[in-house]
Amino acid sequence: MRAFLLGLMGLVLLAAPVRAQDAPDVIATVAVTRDGARWTADYDLRLDRPAFAFVVSALMREGRRPWRPDRWTVQTPGVEISRVGNYDVLKSTNGRALPRRIRIAMRPMGGDLEAEYAPSLVFSDGAVALFSEQFDLIPLDNAQAALDLPADLNGVQLDGGLTQVTWRDRAGPVMLHGRRERAPTAADAETYVLFGSPGVREGPAIATVVDPNLPVWLRDELEAFTPRVMALYAERTGPRRGERPTVMVSWSGPTDSLSSMAGSVLPNLIVIDFEGEGVLDPSPQVLARARWFLGHEAAHFWLGSQGLRYEAARDAWITEGGADVMAVRALSTLDPAYDAGEELQREVDDCIDLSTHRGVASAGERGEHRAYYACGAVFWLVMEAAAGQDVFGVLSGFMADNADGVLSRSEWLDRLDAVSGDPSLRADIERLLDQGDPDPAVVIGRLFQGAGVPFDMVAGQPQLI
């Protein structure tokens, strides 16, 4: 049986850490260089500190382990990278101030992180894309101070300033924000920087950078379907912000017994990695799944990356569940043969499993990020029914009312109160968010009944009609 692993990761970096106003503009510079097969990151620190935490320190999705030990090797004597709390920490071995210049050898590899952008995308022709923010540092008074850093840095005020990165490839220019330059320099770029060239295909609605070994049908589908689904979103919710987007797609090969689609969204950029023998051919099931996946990622240009974003990572159910339902509604419009019921029932079933005796809001701490998607979709179904509008109509209202671009949990629930006139709906959703329930199926059944979502209870489980 083939496994469909969907790493839908547009749920981070939707609000950046806040730097202290009196902090220096740049606390470190780093030169990232590729010289053939040799990769290095040369840091020049501008503060005398014994330790710095790396902002991008999420665990690997597979195995829940740190990713840097397999990919980064510190070559400067007296310096090491250790795991302290939720963060990888660059620290001196003697507790004194780090040397100002530090060299790290890198080995870019594929693989997804939990609720974070993959550090690198590796293309089959040797091209590599690096996530720009993986080099960012937070100065610490000592390594153990990393224990005091919250796991979610959204909106958190941090001491220190920016990490400025210069990108070089001895073989030629690199691509940053759609432009190729010899040695571009940036801080807070929030993008992927491409070394090498799988080739850029220019289209009127999107540009694509596609692994040359990606199955042809997938390349054709993403180039044809992504503009269609984005046009539908624009028609139903209003135009997206930003310039023409780029879709960057890597291919991790035809791994046996696997069908994997992992993706994330940054400003004007969708990043996708496909893997597995299950996506070699466009069976009806795989085609529908691929279109739904593209629909979810594209939705984040309206609800997520460049549209409304959540206030804190614990509220990722707003953007992830909303994007799931947007994709379902879009496919139902664009493909009359699409079975929306199967996808939505999967959301209900997964939400029940993932909110039994545990709250959805804390799912990220357990590595159960799927709860944000599944239960978020359930909550959006309740909102649709209570409002008498589909997700696009509800989202349009939120976009009109939230000039700051942030859709908080309280604002979402306040809208539910207003359209339903039933405070019990809010109470049940907050119960699932904050603590879960011994029998979430009963709670979801109450939500569906109160809001008017068509369903039956079958063997104690809500089944959508």
Could you explain how this protein is built, in words?
The protein is of the alpha+beta class. It contains eleven helices and 25 strands. The strands form six sheets. It has a six-stranded mixed β-sheet, with helices on one face. Strands 6-9-4-3-14-17 form a six-stranded mixed β-sheet. A hairpin with a 5-residue loop joins strand 10 and strand 11. The protein is globular and about 65 Å long.
Quick take:
This protein is α+β, with helices and mostly antiparallel strands and 465 residues long. Helix content is 31%, strand content 26%.
Properties at a glance:
single chain; 465 residues; alpha+beta; six-stranded mixed β-sheet; 25 strands; globular; disordered N terminus
Shape: globular
Please give the radius of gyration in angstroms: 22 Å
Let me know the number of strands.
25
- Alpha plus pi helix count: 11
| Share of residues in helices | 25-40%
Strand order of the largest sheet: 1-22-23-21-20-19
Quaternary structure state of the chains depicted: single chain
Amino- and carboxy-terminal Cα gap: 28 Å
**Main beta sheet strand tally, sense and closure:** 6 strands, mixed
Classify the beta-strand content into a percent band: 25-35%
Show unreliable segments: 1-15
